[in-house]
Amino acid sequence: MVSTHDCDASGLEELAAECDRARAELERLRREKREVEIELAILKGAVELAGIRAGRRPGQPD
Asked: Is 57 helix (H, G, I), strand (E, B) or coil?
């Protein structure tokens, strides 16, 4: 059984700090994911514009 002493203020502060760190990391990862999604969309568009298809080198006729 958990005693009142085990749930002291410093323990709660540490837990709150860990939650803050986890939230900050989650937000960083979400930002990074958005940036990668944008980069992927740009690259897909570039491939489409260049007419690059699987097994075909750029500049070669169809």
From this structure: coil
Question: What does DSSP assign to residue 56?
Answer: -
Sign of CA dihedral 6, 7, 10, 16: positive
With a CB cutoff of 8 Å and minimum separation 6, the contacts of 52 are 58
Instruction: Tell me the one-letter amino acid at 43.
Output: L
pLDDT tens for each residue of 1-35: 455 555 688 999 999 999 999 999 999 999 999 99
Closest by CA position to 53, among listed 62, 17, 43, 1: 62
What type of residue sits at position 2?
V
Q: Considering the entire predicted model, what is its pTM?
A: 0.62
Using CA atoms, how far apart are residues 62 and 48, in angstroms rounded to an integer?
A: 14
